Amino acid sequence: MTQWCSSRPENASPLPHSAGKVFAGLTKNGDRLVGQIAKRQSVVNPENTFFSVKRFIGKKMNEVDKESKQVSYHVVRDENGNVKLECPATGKQFAAEEISPQVYIQVGYL
Question: What stretch of H or E contains 75?
């Protein structure tokens, strides 16, 4: 398991996480969810809720075949063989590098 640490500005709330995993999700109307709210959404909207995305950063699809089967969202290959995370709610594919910063944006760190 990957451990992570971050600093935060004074008077800012801590990053939302649940048991070491950070959840980020998109609702069907495009709202971003982070933390416990996103984790709760994963029960009814698993294909639009992302967690453990750092394992896919900078990887080719052939390197993460086993890991891609352990998540509820769709992990697909782009035209260059890179990993993309598919989000049916938006009809888009995202790189893992795009999902991770959403957590920081949502809580006001970026």
Answer: strand 74-77
